[in-house]
Description:
elongated, 10 helices, alpha/beta
Amino acid sequence: MVAAKETDVYRTDSKLRGTLLNPTQRENLIKPYLPSPPTTSRSSPQSPWRIRALIKQQVHFLVFTIIHTLFSLYIRLRQTYHALIDRVFTILYYHHRAPELIQQDVRGLTRIPEHLSVILELKGEERGSTGLERLIDEVAEISAWCACVGIPMLSVFESTGILKKYLSTTHRTVSSKLHAYFGRRIPALQTRAPHGPALLNGGGVENAGSCLGQDHISILLLSSEDGRSTLVDLTKTLAEMSQRHKLSPDDISRELIDAEITESVMGEPDLLVLFGPNVGLQGYPPWQVRLTEIFHVQDNSGVGYQVFLRALHRYAKAQMRFGR
């Protein structure tokens, strides 16, 4: 217990507002009554585990940095290589808008696709008129290349469907581009969208099934609504017909579905060309790509004649194994 004398001294010092004792005397007064300091070490028994965790974290960070650096170097080298290859192809095989040069580039191919399909993309930062003009001009360029090669059918898929809204503008732009390549004698041109009339040369409107001459090109504009939604609608229609006993379930076959989809949308393309850096179908009609040859070039980000030409060469060398 605290001694009475020390208690009186402490209280007297408090009444005098600390003038009786100096700080050292006050500390010596209460020091005998303070608890003894701990004798054990303050270091935690888990400190070795913390050191190991720190070392492990640093090792993981080092490994991640090495992997990230090597992968970044690989991506840079791959992009440089593809850019160099594209530049070489652009210089060696530039068409100069001359059908004779394009025909010379494909003269040695053993086969040419009867139906070529491409996927184009309206980028988010180009939603205005500039992006639409670029998109329509790309359709016109590809159409001219197909006409020069002798491909009679071109289907263009753009997921938003904006090309369908500007069908007449697309038709006029393609016709103008064909004049730039062929002069006055251009191939017969037909531009249409599923479930709609077709535009012919001169702006005339005919049914989608109208026949063209031998020297012609037919352009079909597609969107995402012509893909899975069309297949779902056809399934619902066949189910309702079966429930109403207008169609036997035994009559529903792959051939029937193929014929209906071919009539309503299109048949299977022989070659599908992707002008983007990755393989992404973006809602492309799934039924029509069962046996289609798909071609794309890594790190490519635009429509180019060299990609189109490389796709035709790849298609000519591809082996079609349909099975039994």
